[in-house]
Amino acid sequence: MFRGFNGALFDFGLNYLHFFVAFATLKTMLDQKTLEELKSALTKEREVLIGELETIATPDPNLKDDWNVKHEEWSENQITSKEELEAGENVNESDEDMKNKALSDHLELRLRDINNALKRMEEGTYGICEVCQKPIPFERLKANPAAATDIEHAKEHGV
Q1: Whether residue 135 has pLDDT greater than 70
Q2: In the chain, how many domains are there?
Q3: Does residue 2 form part of some domain?
Q4: Could you tell me which residues come within 8 angstroms of residue 76 by beta carbon, excluding any fewer than 6 positions away?
Q5: How far is CA 56 from the centre of its chain?
Q6: Residue 100: inside a domain, yes or no?
Q7: pLDDT, tens digit, 9 for 90 and up, residues 115-132
Q8: Which of 1, 10, 103, 146 has the fewest beta carbons under 10 Å from its own?
Q9: Is residue 140 part of a domain?
Q10: 3-state DSSP call for residue 139?
Q11: How far from 6 is each of 13, 17, 20, CA to CA, in Å?
């Protein structure tokens, strides 16, 4: 409960209080310079990820933040064994496509995390654990600027 300036009682609830305390603590913990450094690190990593994705995939025009793996054509000189020659090109394409799909999925997930972190910065919620609404320690943000949870909740939720 909180008594306003006119004497009225307000009950914002415990969650609001946690958010308010976390936000006030975060403001002092992450100054503007630190936020800019973390934003710069996220932006640079985002550019690298997009560059890596562009080598193996193309953006899906129908699904935002989704990429389609490029299918490479194989020539006969790329077939390295008799078994591969007998099995034909499809085996080689399939193996390479599976590797690229796994890599693409990994890069897409990291890119999504980075984009979400940049969005939280714009919204003013960056650095606050999405589970408990408490500040994420600076050491964690420094190690992983895209972190959406503190270490405790990252372990509990497999994040």
Answers
A1: yes
A2: 1
A3: no
A4: 85
A5: 19
A6: yes
A7: 999 999 999 999 999 999
A8: 1
A9: yes
A10: helix
A11: 20, 20, 21
